Amino acid sequence: MNYQWYPGHMTKAKRQMQEDIKLIDLIIELVDARVPLASRNPEINELGRNKARLILLNKSDLADERRTLSWQKYFEDQGFYVVKINARSGAGLKSIQGVIQEACKEKIERDRRRGIKNRPVRAMVVGIPNVGKSTFINSYAGKACTKTGNKPGVTKGKQWIRLNKSLELLDTPGILWPKFEDQTVGLRLAMIGSIKDDILNVEELALEVLKFLKAEYPGILQQRYEIEESEDPVQLLRAIADVRKCVLKGNEPDYGKAAAIVMDEFRNGKLGRISLEQPPEGTKDE
Fold first, then answer.
1. Comparing 198 with 268, which gets the higher pLDDT?
2. Could you report the per-residue pLDDT of 71-85, keeping only the tens digit for each?
C-alpha cells in the first residue's frame, strides 16, 4: 500500500505557523504515545527553534508503559519537557501547568527584570490529525476558557483563549502533516487511524497489525481470540474470522469483517497496551 500526504495543505499551514510562531513563548506538541516519532511533524523542530518546547504523550493509556517511559527519557535527553497524558479522561493534565512554568521560567524571569508582572505565557498547540489536539484543548480549558479578543499587533481575526491568569493558547494553528518519504511512517499512522480507512485496504492493514503483534507481543492474540499464533498472518485472520463467526455465504470466511474487528480492537486498546515504535538504538526500554 502507498500512504499519501497532501503538500498543498502543508505549505499553507507552514506559512501560517511561521507567522504565528513570532507571537508565542511555548510550543505544546501533541504526539500519539503509541507512535511518538511517526506522529510528529519534523518541520516543527525547525519552525520552533528558540522557543520553549513541551511534548505531550497523549493516549498513553493505550501505549506500552515501559516503552512510553523510554520515549519520555528520549525526548527529555533532547531538551524537551515531556508529560504523559490521556486527554479524553483528563489523566496527567493537572501536572501541565507546573511544567509550563518551569519550561518558560527564563521568559518569566526576563519579564520580571523588565518590570512586567503577570504577563501570561502564550502557547501554541500543534499536532497532526487524530493525535487528540482538540480533545486536549477542550479538556484542559474546561469551562474556565474565555476568548480574550484580538491583541495589539496580532493578525486580524486571531483569537487567544485565556485558560487562567498565567496561560493563553493561540486558537487555532494550522494542522501539519508529516512528510513521510519513509512508508513505515505512513503504515504506522494508518494503523492508529490517522489516515482515513476509506482510502486504505483494511484487510492488508489488519495483516500488518497481526504480523507486528505476533513478532513484538507474542501471546497477545492467543489470549484475546483463543487461537494458535501461526506464522502466517492470513491464517491468523482466518482463525479470528472463525472465532468471531465472520462468515460469508457458502461458509467462506469474511476476511473484511474480521479485519475490521482486529483494527477496532487494536485501536481501542482491547488487545492490551501496545506501542508500535521504540526509541532509536541506545534508548530502548531496559
1. 268
2. 999 999 999 999 999
11: left (phi over 0), alpha (psi -120 to 50) or beta: alpha
The candidate with the shortest Cα–Cα distance to 131, out of 175, 83, 184, is 175
Cβ atoms 168, 148 nearer than 8 A: yes
Give the number of residues written for the chain.
286
Q: What is the DSSP letter of 183?
A: H
Phi and psi (nearest 5°) for 111?
-60, -45
Torsional sign, CA 235, 236, 241, 243: positive
> Which residues fall within 8 angstroms of residue 28, CB to CB, at 6 or more apart?
54, 56, 123, 124, 125, 126, 169
- Between strands 81-84 and 121-126, the pairing is unpaired
Of 130, 133, 128, 132, which is closest to residue 169 (Cα–Cα)? 133
